[in-house]
UniProtKB/TrEMBL annotation:
Signal peptide: none annotated. This is DUF4281 domain-containing protein. Keywords: Membrane, Transmembrane, Transmembrane helix. Pfam families: ABA4-like. InterPro entries: ABA4-like. PANTHER family: PROTEIN ABA DEFICIENT 4, CHLOROPLASTIC. The chain crosses the membrane at residues 6-25, 37-59, 79-99, 111-133.
Length: 141
C-alpha cells in the first residue's frame, strides 16, 4: 500500500468516530468506540510501521526544533505520514476526552460541538476552547 493510500485510509478511519461524537455522543456504538480506543490503537500500529520503516529514528533529534525539522525533511513520505497519523490519533483521543468529561460534568452537548470541531481541525485549540467552557460551567480548574 502506498503512503498516499495509507494517508487516505488513516484520514478516513477517524471520520466515523468524530461524526458520532458530534451527532450521537450517547449512542452505544459511540460509547464503545470512545471506551475501546480502537481507532487510535489502529492508528498507533500504522504510526509504528511508518515511523520505523525508514530505519532507526534519531530520538536525540526531538530535543531541538532544528532536529525535528531535519527528521521531517530527511525522513521522506514515511516520516511525514507517521507525523500525520500522530496528529490524527492524539486529536481523536483529545476529542474523546472532551466528550467523556463533558458527559461526566453534565455540560450540555451543544456547548461541546464547537470545541470538538476545533479538536478535529486544530487539536489544541479545541482543547483550549473546551477547557474555557468547562471552567466557566463548573467553576473549577
Amino acid at each position: 500500500m502506498t503512503p498516499e493510500a495509507v494517508f487516505s485510509l488513516a484520514s478516513t478511519l477517524v471520520l466515523p468516530q468524530w461524526l458520532l461524537m458530534i451527532f450521537a455522543p450517547r449512542w452505544a456504538v459511540t460509547k464503545w468506540l470512545m471506551q475501546s480506543y480502537l481507532i487510535p490503537v489502529c492508528l498507533a500500529v500504522i504510526y509504528i510501521i511508518y515511523l520505523f520503516s525508514g530505519g532507526p529514528v534519531d530520538f536525540g533529534a526531538f530535543g531541538t526544533l532544528a532536529g525535528v525539522k531535519g527528521l521531517f525533511s530527511k525522513g521522506g513520505d514515511g516520516v511525514m505520514l507517521a507525523g500525520w497519523v500522530h496528529y490524527l490519533a492524539f486529536d481523536l483521543v483529545a476529542g474523546t476526552a472532551v466528550v467523556r468529561d463533558a458527559q461526566e460534568k453534565a455540560i450540555p452537548h451543544w456547548l461541546v460541538v464547537v470545541p470538538l470541531f476545533f479538536c478535529f481541525m486544530l487539536g489544541p485549540v479545541g482543547l483550549l476552547l473546551y477547557w474555557l467552557i468547562r471552567t466557566v460551567r463548573t467553576r473549577t480548574v
